Predict the 3D structure of the following.
Amino acid sequence: MKVIGGYVSPYVRKVLACLHLKGLDYEIDPITPFYGDAEFERVSPLRRIPVLIDGAVELCDSSVICAYLDEAYPGHPLLPQAPADRARARWLEEYADTRMGDVFIWRLFQNAVIKPAVWGEKGDKAVIAAALETDVPGVLDYLERQVPAQGYLFGELLGLADISLGAFFRNAGFARFSVDAGRWPKTATFVGRVLNHPALRMLQPYEDVCMTTPIAGHRDALRAAGAPITAETVATATPKPGVMPI
């Protein structure tokens, strides 16, 4: 089983955490999507990560991949059993992928990290300020009404919805943002529980390597850190312009 996509992506993080919960082994080609070659574009026509290759199965989109993993492999359930709970879990995953992706990735992380690291450009401080003033509080107000004071969203087992919500706060942290526990206490403790679960905590050393190493050196640095790196890559030496979720 192979995953194409870099450790810093919240969408890749979601898939890798679910693979861990399922007890599945994999190798990873840790590319930044802007650097994908023609083969990457073949398996991911929208040039998005992650991609999962499981034998003859080639899948794009983190939600599609996680649904496949839950249906194809037994073990730790990623979704709750009750229909109403399953529907709510799917909605929270969608909310994370769309609204939180827009706010935490394209407004904060894009300007604080992607533009300087990939394109050598300065981030837009006005966009960051507006997001922190209006968009982020709106997201956190909503999450404060949704997350539990203890445990996870649907009981004592970490699930796909928990991972989907929590994954974006790792990127928010890379952009030097943390949840104000005085204003959003349930959300702050919930995020801490999710990110400290072994399924996500085990990824953090590799994420830190990526955040402290130039993109060209990611594969070697990750291999040295013990990451399960593929023998071959679909990465290119230079980035291709374009807007795509990461």
